[in-house]
């Protein structure tokens, strides 16, 4: 089998294991999971692995990713994470549930739902301090009242999102607040809210330490499933795989050179005037990967190779005594930003590692006969 360079090796079985273990952990106290697919651009094989692991919904911020998954034959409940506006018609026709915070948008959804003779479900997002999306708690009751007058729109839940913009931690207090808002709305309008979505991969610590989880019965998890981490401290979650993704690039130059550039110093390719410290003569290695492909600061070398710098298409490494030669492979682990950028680069091939047999038939049904995409 020919191996492409650069490539991202993706272990579907590890992603499935992570999803399964998280479903068990959270399911133990009645919390269902949405597998969040935006960091992997809705890659159908990865999403299928999440579904095999037991997630009840697949959630993505981009309608294009959801349409890609549907076209690939993925069958599940799809959730749109980012509140839509001009895409309302596409949302109504290709998404089951969308997260919403603006009445004008929900009116658009209602309008197109009528035209297409469909019902659309929404989860209303509440602002609990992180200051990204959400209706302020004091406006919630009035907001719900307006939605209830719109035809073909069904409110199926309430949610909140923390630890994204403001870095606000999910804790006893804000989770309790969400539960209380749910009680208030259910009582006031005599409706039943099925999905109380308390947050994302940052909710792990709260969950582990909470004696009482209140009405919270759903979480939306991306990073925990893909990289095995919670996101308050970026600690590995015990028992999960943290290296399901591995970025591999090839050495295209390996030479002994001085560590100080010679000649007059001007701006580099990105408009900075660089400065250097003299480390003497050393082995310098260039790999065929650059800032156009990946967030370079996110790369973690398994061999502890130091990254000296990067331009659009080259990353320069301190070769130390690793004896790297042209054509050799260099491996990196990725954090979330690195995963997002690497999956988005059209130059990085996605290669699925089919470690266990169980996953192969699924890939076949997706018409991915070759593991190289
Ligand atoms: C991206 C996103 C998530 C998933 O976040 P992770 O930290 O990857 O778990 C959950 N909810 C919303 C609204 C999002 O946009």
Automatic annotation (TrEMBL):
Classification lineage: Bacteria, Bacillati, Cyanobacteriota, Cyanophyceae, Coleofasciculales
The name this protein goes by in its record: Alanine racemase, N-terminal domain family
Organism: Coleofasciculus chthonoplastes PCC 7420
Requisite cofactors: pyridoxal 5'-phosphate
Database matches in PANTHER family: ALANINE RACEMASE, LYSINE RACEMASE
Keyword Transit peptide belongs to the record: no
Entry annotated with the keyword Cell inner membrane: no
Keyword terms of this UniProt record: Isomerase, Pyridoxal phosphate
Residue ranges of domain Alanine racemase N-terminal in the record: 10-225
Domain of life, per lineage: Bacteria
MF term (GO), any: alanine racemase activity
Listed Pfam families: Ala_racemase_N
GO cellular component: cytosol
């Amino acid at each position: 089998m020919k191996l492409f360079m650069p490539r991202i090796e993706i272990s579907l079985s590890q992603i499935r294991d992570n999803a399964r273990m998280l479903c068990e952990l959270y399911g133990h106290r009645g919390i269902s999971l949405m597998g969040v697919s935006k960091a992997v651009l809705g890659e159908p094989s990865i999403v299928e692995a999440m579904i095999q692991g037991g997630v009840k919904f697949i959630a993505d911020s981009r309608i294009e990713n959801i349409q890609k998954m549907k076209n690939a034959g993925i069958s599940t409940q799809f959730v749109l994470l980012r509140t839509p506006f001009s895409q309302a018609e596409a949302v109504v026709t290709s998404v089951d549930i969308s997260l919403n915070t603006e009445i004008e948008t929900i009116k658009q959804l209602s309008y197109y739902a009528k035209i297409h003779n469909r019902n659309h479900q929404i989860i209303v997002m509440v602002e609990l301090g992180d200051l990204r999306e959400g209706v302020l708690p004091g406006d919630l009751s009035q907001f719900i009242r307006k939605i209830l007058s719109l035809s073909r729109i069904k409110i199926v839940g309430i949610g909140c999102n923390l630890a994204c913009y403001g870095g606000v931690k999910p804790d006893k207090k804000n989770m309790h607040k969400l539960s209380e808002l749910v009680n208030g709305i259910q009582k006031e309008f005599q409706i039943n809210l099925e999905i109380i979505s308390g947050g994302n991969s940052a909710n792990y610590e709260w969950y582990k330490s909470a004696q009482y989880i209140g009405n919270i019965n759903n979480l939306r998890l991306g990073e925990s499933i893909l990289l095995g981490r919670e996101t308050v401290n970026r600690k590995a979650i015990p028992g999960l795989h943290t290296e399901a993704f591995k970025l591999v690039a090839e050495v295209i130059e390996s030479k002994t050179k001085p560590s100080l550039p010679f000649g007059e110093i001007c701006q580099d390719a990105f408009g900075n005037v660089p400065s250097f410290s003299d480390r003497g003569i050393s082995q310098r290695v260039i790999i065929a990967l650059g800032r156009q492909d990946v967030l370079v600061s996110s790369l973690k070398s398994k061999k502890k190779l130091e990254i000296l710098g990067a331009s659009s298409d080259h990353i320069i490494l301190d070769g130390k005594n690793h004896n790297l030669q042209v054509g050799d492979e260099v491996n990196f682990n990725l954090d979330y930003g690195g995963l997002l950028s690497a999956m988005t680069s059209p130059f990085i091939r996605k290669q699925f590692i089919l470690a266990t047999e169980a996953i192969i038939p699924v890939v076949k049904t997706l018409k991915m006969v070759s593991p190289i995409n």
